[in-house]
Amino acid sequence: MTVQGDRRKFRREGADQRKEALVRATLGLIAEEGVRGATVRAIAERAEVTQGLIRHYFSTKEDLVLAAYTQHMDALTEQTFAKAEGATPRARLAALVVASVTPPVADAASVALWAGFLTQVRQDARMQEVHARSYHGFRDRLEALIAEVLAQDGRAADSRDCRPLAIACNAVIDGLWLEGGALADAFEEGELAAIAVQSVGAILGMNLTGTEAQE
Amino acid sequence: MTVQGDRRKFRREGADQRKEALVRATLGLIAEEGVRGATVRAIAERAEVTQGLIRHYFSTKEDLVLAAYTQHMDALTEQTFAKAEGATPRARLAALVVASVTPPVADAASVALWAGFLTQVRQDARMQEVHARSYHGFRDRLEALIAEVLAQDGRAADSRDCRPLAIACNAVIDGLWLEGGALADAFEEGELAAIAVQSVGAILGMNLTGTEAQE
DNA sequence: AGGTTAATTATGCAAGCGTATAATTACGCG
DNA sequence: CGCGTAATTATACGCTTGCATAATTAACCT
User: Fold this and answer.
1) HEC profile for B101-169?
2) What distance in Å separates the CA atoms of residue A208 and residue A13, rounded to the nearest whole number?
3) If B187 and its partner were Cys, which of A146, A208, B46, B191 is the partner (CB 3.0–4.6 Å)?
4) Does the keyword Metal-binding apply (chains A, B) (predicted)?
5) What is the rounded CA–CA span in Å between residue A61 and residue B33?
C-alpha cells in the first residue's frame, strides 16, 4: 500500500526521441543562456524530464554536449547547402553564399552556439574531431562547387587552384556570418548578402550578382 | 601577543598594478581553460594574491571580466595596426592584412579568448558596448586605410563605396583569423597570409601581393 | 491479466562557486 | 618611532553544480 500520489507522472519513450529532446534542450539553452546556463538541471527541465534521466542516456554531461555539438554543426551545413539550388553552378554558388549569411543559418543564436562550443573544442579531443570534420566538410563541398563554376567558365579547375579560393570564400562567408550574428543591428537588411555575393565574386574573378534568382 | 606566524606575507602595491595583474591572470585562464576555468580562486592564485583581494578591486566578478575583455580587444586592435607600416597606403594595407592573420594576433589563445567572451557579450549590456566599439573601431580604421589606397589609385573614395568594401575585407580577415586560430594545423605556414592578401586585393580590385616588403 | 524489466523519478552527496565579513599587517605620515 | 589606515589575508556562508544510487512505475510479453 504505497500511497505516494505526488510522484511525477511520465510516459516512456524511445531512446532516440529522448536523446533528441535532450540535445534540443541543450542547444536551446546554450544559445540563450550560454554554456554556463546549460546545467544538467536546466536541460532536464526544458526537456520535461528529471535530471536523473540524462545520466541514463548520456554517461556524462560531456557526452551530451558532444552530441549536441555534432548535431548543430551538421544541421548548419545541411541547412546551408539545402538552399544552394539553381539551374547553373553559378546560381547555386550565389544561393549558397546568400543562405550562409542570412537567417536562420546566420543569426545570433547560431553564432552564440558556435562560440559557446569553441571553448570545449579546445579541451576535448572528440569535440576537436567534430570541429575539424565539420569545417572540412563544408569547405570541401564549397570547393567542389567552385570547381564547377570555374569549369563552366572554361577556366582551370585544378584542386591546387581551387583550394585557396575555397579557403578565401569560406573565410568571407564565415566572417560575415559571424558579424551578422554577433552584431546584427550594425547592418541593413540584405546588406550582408549583397556584400557576400559581391566579395565571393571578386575573389573568383567573376560577376555573381543577380544570379540567385534568374538563369 | 598574537602568535600566528603562518599568515601569508604580502607586499602592498598600487591599485593599477594589482588590477592589471588580475586582468592578466583572467585573460590567461580564459584562454587556457575557458571561462569555466577562470574562477575567482584560480584567478587569485595565478595573480599570487588571495581571492578576497579581487573583491577589493572589482566589486563583482563581472566587472573584472569586463575589464579583461576591454583590454584584450583594445590590445588586439592596437597590435594589429602597429604592424601596418609602410611607405605607401597599399603597403600599409598589405602589412595590416598579413598581421591580422599571423601570430600573435591570430593564434589559438586569442580566438579562444574572443569566443569565451562572446557568450557574456550577449548577456551583459556593457560587454555589448565594448564589443560594438571594438568592432567599429577596427573597421573604421580599415575603411580609412582603404580610402587612402583607392585615392592613391585615383578611384572614388566615397564612404558610400568604401563601407561595403571595408565590411567585406574585415570579414575575410576575421574569417581567416578565426580559422587560423581555431584550426591552426589545417593550413601551411604562410598560406593564410598569402590567401588574405590575395583576397583583399581581389575585393578591392587591385594587386596587393608582394607590396608588404617592397615599395 | 499479471509478472518483468527497463525507463523514469526522487533523494542525497561532496566539491566548487561567488560573495560577504572580520581579522591582520604593511607602509606612509607626523 | 608609533600610530592610523588602506591593503591584504582568512574564514565562512549559502547556493549550485555534476554525479551516484535507490525507489517507483509504465509498458511490453506471453
Assistant:
1) CCCCCCCHHHHHHHHHHHHHHHHCHHHHHHHHHHHHHHHHHHHHHHHHHHHHCCCCCCHHHHHHHHHHH
2) 49
3) B191
4) no
5) 18
Sign of the torsion formed by the C-alpha atoms of A132, A136, A137 and A139 = positive
Chain B residues in contact with A127 (beta carbon < 8 A): none
Q: Give the Å distances, CA to CA, from B1 to B4, B6, B9, B125.
A: 9, 15, 18, 51
Chain A residues within an 8 Å CB radius of B112: 118-119, 122
- Give CA–CA dist A122/A198, Å, rounded: 34
**CB within 7 A of strand D: which residues qualify?**
A 2, 4, 7, 9-12, 38-42, 51-52, 55, 60-62; B 6-8, 10-13, 15, 18, 49-53, 56
CATH dotted code for B13-59: 1.10.10.60
User: Per CATH, which fold does B66-204 belong to?
Assistant: Tetracycline Repressor; domain 2 (1.10.357)
- In this predicted model, what pLDDT tens digit does every residue of B111-143 receive, in sequence order? 999 999 999 999 999 999 999 999 999 999 999
B173 touches B200 (CB < 8 A): yes
Instruction: List chain B domain ranges.
Output: 13-59, 66-204
Q: Does domain A69-204 have CATH number 1.10.357.10?
A: yes
Q: Do residue B173 and residue A176 have CB atoms under 8 angstroms apart?
A: no
**B48 Ramachandran zone, left/alpha/beta (phi>0; psi -120 to 50):** left
Tens digits of residue pLDDT in B145-160:
999 999 999 998 899 9
Cα gap B95→B122, rounded to integer Å: 32
Q: Which residue's CA is nearest to the C1' of nucleotide C27?
A: B12
B136 contacts: CB under 8 Å, gap ≥ 6: A186
The answer to whether the beta carbons of residues B91 and B148 sit under 8 Å apart is no
pLDDT-flagged residues of chain A (< 50): 1-4, 214-215
D18 C1' – B206 CA distance, angstroms? 56
Nucleotide nearest to B10 (CA to C1'): D8
Residue A20, amino acid? E
